[in-house]
Amino acid sequence: MTAALPTRHDEAWRYADLGALAPLWPVTPETIVLAAGETAAHTLILNGAGAEVRDITITLGEGAHLAFHALNAARGYGRMALRVTLARGARFEFGAAQLAAGDQTVEIVTEVVHAEPDATSHQIVRQVLAGRATGNYLGRVVVARGAVGTDGNQSIRAMLLDRGATANARPELEIHADDVKCAHGCAIGELDKDALFYLASRGLPPAAAKALMLQAFLAEAFVGAHDEDRLTTAALAALETVL
Amino acid sequence: MTMLQITDLSATVADKPILKGLSLSVNAGEIHAIMGPNGAGKSTLGYTLGGRPGYDVTGGSVLFEGQDLLALAPHERAAAGLFLGFQYPVEIPGVSMVQFLRESLNAQRKVRGEEPLSGGAFLKLAREQAALLKLDAEMLKRPVNVGFSGGEKKRAEMVQMGILDPKLAILDETDSGLDIDALKVCGEGINAIMRRPDKAVVLITHYQRLLDHVKPDFVHVLAAGRIVRSGGADLALELEEHGYEAVVA
Questions:
Q1: Band of the pLDDT at A2, cuts 50, 70, 90?
Q2: Labelling B219: which of A22, A224, B182, B249 has CA 20 to 30 A away?
Q3: What confidence category does residue B208 fall into, taking pLDDT thresholds of 50, 70 and 90?
């Protein structure tokens, strides 16, 4: 049986581009499984001209470590949904950049379940949105009963380049254990005007000054990534189409 | 030759009149000091000449080498040969100083129809200028002004000036936040880079002390948005001795 197309009543699809989703539905789920003690790096780049929707279930065994870095700049509609379950002492690092312009929608939906004690999840998402684009981050961190020693962190920032652009950021914590460390930070803003003037005063044209600052902003998502160069190159190319 | 001709300049910040009919003429080869009490409009003059958004010209004119400076965007003013030294240099996390300066210099060169400087040639130039200002060249690899001390920021401003090699520098309180040794280094840097027959400097300062190192040809007192007195280097000493109030009155 084919699952019905989601509606806006589904929280995880609330800001989605359902029109662009329809031809791709149902989305084939993917899985990443790391056994106990295993370490891996994963890179996902969505930057095609059409719609790209990915649905990935990630299971990290005891003490496993996954570094997952992503660029979401699909020009039709880009969505990556990650459901992550962490066993004891597992570590999940997620760094992602999203870029969109025009009427595009890009979104990242994560649910990270700290099922057992002492697991770590660090998520950093940087978004650059121009025109009338929409960028979404819906991130839920669940700390199961007894999962003490959990360290969960979400750092979400968006730059709106035009008045018509929208960022929806919803970091969520659901904690059923004591003695956990969970933090989330979320900021939506514009480029610092003082910095732009400073750069201009040295001779940089406005577009170059903006690009330089946005490169630095996006780079925060890829620090330490296994594929840092490839991600950065793809992000810069996406940035050029957005500016 | 007149390099900068400011005539009857008026400007507002957030609709508040700050400059009220300021006139000043600067020739190539000259160093002018602009002194004045807090709130006189000294920094506003610098920002207005630099073209900072929010500083609105409501009257008067500014000619830079005969060209209407006010018609140019900030980056075009830089390419025309204007350099603005900031009282509070801005920190820009994540943007490397070297990359930013090289892109800036090459953007200026492009406007002037010159070939871009290669990475190697640029680094050589940057190292030379950093050495002149006794700034560790390694600092230029860091993000723009991030983690620099007050004195390092000001020296880095002068290094930028040396790299960009402007015709006219407007230096806004370059002396503030400097200790005695750094003041001397910055002063010598200004002389080395800008004390030339084809260049000019407008030094905006509260105090006489920078003028011990960079000897001005003219000193002007700015009060309530206008130049109220002009004189030679000795005017600065008179101000130091008697205070602005006595001299302006």
A1: low
A2: B182
A3: confident
Angle, CA A195 vertex, CA B57 and CA A169 arms, to 5° = 120
Confidence bin at B128 (pLDDT 50/70/90): very high
Residue numbers in B near A216 (CB within 8 A)? 92-95, 143
Span A194-222, pLDDT tens digits:
999 999 999 999 999 999 999 999 999 99
Residue B234, helix vs strand vs coil: helix
Q: Is the pLDDT of residue A1 over 50?
A: no
Q: What is the pTM of this model?
A: 0.90
Dist. CA A212–CA A191, nearest whole Å: 11
Whole-complex ipTM = 0.96
Residue B156 φ then ψ, to 5°: -65, -35
Q: What is the CATH number of domain B2-248?
A: 3.40.50.300
- The contacts of residue B202 (CB under 8 Å, 6+ apart) are B4, B24, B26, B32, B33, B34, B168, B169, B170, B171
Question: Would residue B167 be called left, alpha or beta, if left means φ above 0 and alpha means ψ between -120 and 50 degrees?
Answer: alpha
Q: Three-state DSSP class for A202?
A: coil
Distance from CA of A133 to the nearest CA of B (A): 25
Secondary element (H or E) of residue A210: helix A206-219
Q: Which of B87, B85, B103, B92 is nearest to B147 (CA)?
A: B92
Report yes or no: A195 at the B interface, CB cutoff 8 Å: yes
Q: Mean pLDDT over residues A161-178, rounded?
A: 95
Count CB-CB contacts under 10 A for residue A91: 18
- Buried b vs exposed e over B13-49: b needs ≥16 C-beta within 10 Å? beeeebbbebebebebebbbbbbbbeebbbbbbbbbb
Angstrom distance (rounded) from CA A232 to CA A227: 8
Q: Residues A13, A7: contact at Cβ < 8 Å?
A: yes
Asked whether the predicted pLDDT for residue A223 surpasses 70, the reply is: yes
Half-sphere exposure of B229 (CA within 13 A, CB side): 17
Work out the minimum CA distance from B30 to partner chain A, whole angstroms. 22
pLDDT score recorded for residue B240:
86
Domain range summary for chain B, segments of one domain joined by +: 2-248
* B125 contacts: CB under 8 Å, gap ≥ 6: B117, B163
Rounded Cα gap, residues B60 and B5, in angstroms: 11
